[in-house]
Amino acid sequence: MRSEVNLVGLCCSVPHLIVYNKLRKMSKGDTLLVITDDATVVQRDIIPLAEKFGCKTTITKDEDLFKIELTI
Questions:
Q1: In angstroms, rounded to a whole number, what is the distance separating the alpha carbons of residues 39 and 15?
Q2: What is residue 63's three-state secondary structure?
Q3: Where are the domains positioned within the chain?
Q4: Is 25 exposed, middle or buried, given 0-12, 13-18 or 19+ CB atoms closer than 10 A?
Q5: Tell me, what's the pLDDT at 49?
Q6: Gene3D superfamilies recorded for this chain (predicted)?
């Protein structure tokens, strides 16, 4: 299954909680596309969660947005 979450404009613990809850419900082979405009969210929240869940991670930057694809 493929799902997407838009975190543009969100900060503090909100992005972490949203991504954590999505990853927790995913099964092997599922992919989550995370979109954010905050590099700190990528470094502080998304990358550590991807490592914790053992995700294959692809990060691209498109203008002012980061697109992070996490596959379990």
A1: 12
A2: coil
A3: 2-71
A4: exposed
A5: 97
A6: TusA-like domain
